[in-house]
Amino acid sequence: MARANFLFTSESVSEGHPDKVSDQISDAVVDLFLSKDPQARVACETLTTTNRVVLAGEVRGAGMIDTAGNWAPGALEEIQTVVRETVKRIGYEQDGFHWQNLSFENHLHPQSAHIAQGVDASGNKDEGAGDQGIMFGYATDETPDFMPATLYYSHKILERMAADRHSGKAPFLEPDAKSQVTLAYENEIPVRATALVVSTQHAVDYCLPHSDGGDAAKYAELRDYVMGVFRDVLPQGFVTDETTIHVNPTGRFEIGGPDGDAGLTGRKIIVDTYGGASPHGGGAFSGKDPTKVDRSAAYITRYLAKNVVAAGLARRCTIQLSYAIGVAEPLSVYVDLHGTGTVDEAKLEAVLPQLVRLTPRGIREHLQLNRPIYQRTAAYGHFGRTPDAEGGFSWEKTDLVDALKAAVQA
To answer: Is 20 known to be catalytic?
Structure first.
C-alpha cells in the first residue's frame, strides 16, 4: 500500500550548470542536422570544461556529412557557430568560460555502418530501434502539468531566476545554479515545503564575509531575492516560518559553470525526467536524434501516461517499454497505476499499442519528432512543458483522452 504521509525531495539545475551546458550544445547539434535533413542520425556527446568545448559522436545527414564521411562545405563552421551561440545565449562571458574565447574541438564522425544496417528500414524490414533498453513514462495529478510537485517547483524556481538574470532584474546572478525542494505530503497531497535550497553562482562579494572578502549587505540582497522567488513560485502558504531555508550554504560561489566543474552530456537524467518520483531506464536524451528510443520511447511513454491521468483513469501512472536494437516492435508494455486506477492495468497494456503504434517510426510520426525542436528541451526538464507552435513538446498534448476513454470502455 502506498504511503499517505511522507516527505519527498527533488532537485533541478539551471541552464548554466556545466552538465546542462553540455546537454544544450548536444541538442543544438541535433537541431542543426535535423534542420538540414529530417532523417539525419545524430549521437553527439559534449564535454565542457575551463574555456573548452569538445564534441564527439556519430552523425549522418544530407547537407552536413555524406556516407563517405565528407563534410559539406561550411558544415564544420556551422557546428562551431551553433556551439558558440548556445554558450552566448546561456550568458557565459567569464574569464574561465567565454563563448567567444573558448577553445573548440569537433570529433564527430560518420555513423557506424553496422548500426545503420540494423536501424534503417530496407525492403520488407521496418526501421528498427536505435538501441536496446527500457524506457519509462510517468504522470501524476499533483500539478496542472501532471508532474511531481517537488520537481515542478524546483524547475520553476530556476526558470524564474534565469529570466530575472537575463532581463537585468537580478544582475548579481550568474548562470550556474541548483535548486532543491522538499515537500510534506498528507494523504498523498503536497501541502507545505519543509526545506528549500538554492545554490547560485553570483557576482563578486555577494556572500557572507570570509577571509578573502564578501559583503554581508550584498549577501542579504541575494538571500532576500531568493526568498522572494520561493514565495512567488510556490503555492501560497507552502513557505512558512518552519521551512528550513539554505541559500548558498557553502558560502562563496563565484567560480562556476564549466570553469568550476566539467560538464558532460546526459548526467542529469533524473532532473530531465521526474525528479526521482518514477523509475528511469538509464538512457539520456540530449544529443540523440528521435530514432534513438532512449529519447523517443521516453517521450511516448510520458505522452501515454499523461493522457491516462488526464482521462481520469488514474491519479498516477507509470508506463514501461522495452526494445532490442534493430527490432521495430517493443518487447514489452507495462502499466502501473499505483492503486489509483479506475481501469485494469492489463486492459491498458492491450489498448495503448492499438491507439499508438509503438515502433520507432510510429512514435516519430505520431509525435512528429523529425523536427529541430530539441535544444529547448535541454534545460528545466523534458516534461511538464507547454507544446509550442513549432512542434516542440508534442508529447505533452492530451489529445488521446477521448480515444482512450472509448477504448477502455469497449
So the answer is: yes
Choose the catalytic residue: 8, 11, 15, 17. Answer: 17
Global pTM exceeds 0.90: yes
Residue type, position 71, single letter: W
- The tens digit of pLDDT for each residue in 194-240 reads 999 999 999 999 998 875 778 999 999 999 999 999 999 999 999 99
Among this protein's residues, is 261 annotated catalytic? yes
Q: Residue 363, Cβ neighbours under 10 Å: how many?
A: 27
* pLDDT tens-digit series, residues 278-323: 999 999 999 999 999 999 999 999 999 999 999 999 999 999 999 9
Per residue, the 3-state secondary structure of the chain, as one string, reads: CCCCCEEEEEEEECCCCHHHHHHHHHHHHHHHHHHHCCCCEEEEEEEEECCEEEEEEEEEECCCECCCCCECCCHHHHHHHHHHHHHHHHCCEECCEECCCCEEEEEEEECCHHHHHHHCCECCECCCECCCEEEEEEEECCCCCCCCHHHHHHHHHHHHHHHHHHHCCCCCEEEEEEEEEEEEEECCEEEEEEEEEEEEEECCCCCCCECCECCHHHHHHHHHHHHHHHHHHCCCCCCCCCCEEEECCCCCCCCCHHHHCCEECCCCHHHHCCCCCCCCCCCCCCCECCCCHHHHHHHHHHHHHHHHHHCCCCCEEEEEEEECECCCCCCEEEEECCCCCCCCHHHHHHHHHHHCCCCHHHHHHHHCCCCCCCHHHCCCCCCCCCCCCCCCCHHHCCCCHHHHHHHHHC
| 336 annotated active-site | no
Please report, as a single letter, which amino acid is at residue 227. Answer: M
Would you call 17 a catalytic residue per the annotation? Answer: yes
Q: Which of 155, 292, 295, 366 is catalytic?
A: 292
> Is 288 assigned a catalytic role?
yes
292 catalytic, yes or no? yes
Catalytically annotated residue among 160, 218, 268, 382: 268
Catalytic residue among 19, 131, 174, 259: 19
